[in-house]
């Protein structure tokens, strides 16, 4: 701790919930989590370009959030580099989207972009590219997904 500064909160530090000591291994992934957090904050504070539709800003934020969950998913389920208590702690404290990660473990949902796209109406981005009409610029309106079927 104790980085140089004027003592004012800069809003960029990851908030660790009080009285919840992170499990072992958290220190190792903290720098990467911080990078994601910083990226997200930059996007959120970015001046909105009026010529750009507002939902596109959400796409950017969603992309970073997705990458963050993917990072933890890979560390825990694929590379087995973090412990179960740490994974559970990260989900519980919303560092990652546990529900989305649970979907990635299911057949056919390995690349799912977000939970919105499998809501009441299933988004076109779930349709395999081979079935969908070829459209280079396709992006789903909800999250900006370019296609997330497992066969894509
Ligand atoms: Zn999608
Ligand atoms: Zn989506």
TrEMBL record:
It comes from the Eukaryota. InterPro entries: BUD31. Pfam families: BUD31 (PF01125). GO terms for cellular component: Prp19 complex; spliceosomal complex; U2 snRNP. Residues 1-25 are annotated as: Disordered. Keywords: Nucleus. Belongs to the BUD31 (G10) family. It comes from Pichia membranifaciens NRRL Y-2026. Its main location: nucleus. It is found in: Nucleus. The keyword Zinc does not apply. This is G10 protein. GO terms for biological process: mRNA splicing, via spliceosome.
